[in-house]
Design a protein that fits this description.
Elements (H helix, E strand, L loop, with lengths): L6 E5 L2 H10 L1 E2 L17 E8 L7 E11 L5 E2 L9 E8 L4 E2 L24 E3 L2 H10 L11
Parallel strand pairs: 1-3
Antiparallel strand pairs: 1-8, 2-6, 3-4, 4-6, 4-7, 5-6
Length: 149
C-alpha cells in the first residue's frame, strides 16, 4: 500500500453521479466525512455505478464518470432538516461509460474475478495508478470537459 492513495474508486448510483457532476462535488459514505477527508487536490476518482438509483433501480454495473479533486477540504451542506452531507469539490471529465466486467480481469484490486463486485462494496477506496489508468483508458478520458458518461 502506498504512503497515501492518489487514485480512487467511488461506488455511487448513477442518479447520484449525475447530481454530483451537475454540482461539481463528490460525496462518500452516505454523506459522512470519514474517507472523503483522505482526498487531496489533484487526486483522481473513477465512479462505478452498480444501479441507476441508490434504493433499487436498474442494474448499471459500469464505470460512469471520471473526476479530479479540486477542493482543499470537505464541507457540509444542508440538503434537508435531517440530511447534512459532507462534500468535496471536483471537476468532472469527458468520458464514455464502460462495462466493469470488460475490465475486471485487468484490475489488481479485483482478487477473484468470479466475485468481481465485492471490492466495490467499500464505497470509496484507493487503487493503484495502473488500475485507474486501465479504467480511464477504457473510458477514453479527456482531462478538461465537464460531463457524465
Amino acid at each position: 500500500m502506498p504512503e497515501r492513495w492518489t487514485h480512487w474508486v467511488a461506488t455511487v448510483s448513477l442518479d447520484h453521479v449525475t447530481a454530483a457532476a451537475g454540482g461539481g462535488f463528490t460525496q462518500a459514505d452516505h454523506g459522512a466525512s470519514t474517507r472523503l477527508s483522505l482526498l487531496r487536490p489533484g487526486d483522481r476518482i473513477v465512479y462505478y455505478s452498480p444501479r441507476t438509483a441508490l434504493r433499487g433501480g436498474r442494474p448499471v454495473r459500469r464505470f460512469t464518470a471520471l473526476a479530479t479533486v479540486t477542493g482543499e477540504a470537505p464541507y457540509q451542506v444542508e440538503v434537508s432538516d435531517t440530511f447534512r452531507p459532507w462534500r468535496l469539490d471536483v471537476t468532472f471529465h469527458e468520458c464514455r461509460p464502460v462495462d466493469a466486467v470488460e475490465l475486471v480481469e485487468h484490475l489488481s484490486f479485483v482478487r477473484d474475478p468470479a466475485h468481481w463486485g465485492l471490492p466495490f462494496r467499500r464505497g470509496l477506496f484507493g487503487v493503484p495508478p495502473a488500475d485507474f489508468d486501465t479504467i480511464a483508458a477504457g473510458m477514453r478520458w479527456k482531462k478538461s470537459v465537464l460531463t457524465v458518461c
